[in-house]
Structure formats: C-alpha cells, structure tokens
Specification:
The protein is an alpha+beta fold. Helices cover 39% and strands 26% of the residues. It has six helices and four strands, in the order E-E-E-H-H-E-H-H-H-H. 20% of the residues are buried.
Length: 112
C-alpha cells in the first residue's frame, strides 16, 4: 500500500514551492522527510557554461533525498563536480562513494 506524500511549502514569487516532503529516499531506501537536491547546484545556474548547455527547466531538475544522503552527496563532491559528473539520479546512485555512504545511512535509525 502506497503511503501518502506530505509537503511543506513556501511562497516564492507567487508560486508555491515544495521544500520538504515525506517519502522513500531513492539512495538509502528509508521512509522519512526528504529534501530537494538540485542535480545542477543553484550556485552554478548563472554561469555561462550551464546557461548555454541547459534550459531553465533542466537547471531546476532535481531529486528528493533524505537529509543524511543529501549531506553525504555534498560532503563527497563540490558543486562543480556535481554539475559536471552527476547530472542524473542514476549517475549519483552508481557512484561508489555515494553508494557506500547510502549503505551506511540505510543502517541508521530514523528519528521521529
């Protein structure tokens, strides 16, 4: 049975933007609050290289992951490395460093 998804939202320039939601993390498989990870970090959206090669829609694509996995992604790689080498969920899931971190996270208890 599928669980309901709950969103916490905020207003952003007249649009309601989801900033947090409950669900299953695609990296560690735990069911908990998720955070949005931009596949191309927002810090790099202004750079010419990314403006030329990606549409606004592509720049704003991302995945919902748990906080521990999200922190692990950013602990292992800087923004430029993430943008260049990890532009898809599949590329993140197949990276050995991130996979090892996600395996560790999967063993952690979910704080309620």
């Amino acid at each position: 049975m599928a669980k309901a998804v709950k969103y916490l939202c905020r207003e952003n320039k007249g649009q309601t933007v989801a900033i947090d939601r409950a669900g299953e993390c695609p990296l560690c498989g735990r069911w908990l609050q998720l955070t949005f990870h931009h596949l191309i970090p927002k810090k790099l959206h202004r750079r010419t290289r990314f403006k030329k090669n990606y549409s606004k829609t592509e720049l704003n694509q991302g995945v919902w992951v748990c906080r521990l996995c999200h922190d692990g992604i950013h602990d292992h790689y800087d923004e430029m490395a993430l943008a260049k080498h990890f532009p898809t969920l599949e590329s993140i899931q197949t990276d050995p460093n991130i996979r090892r971190h996600a395996e560790w996270v999967a063993k952690q208890k979910v704080k309620r």
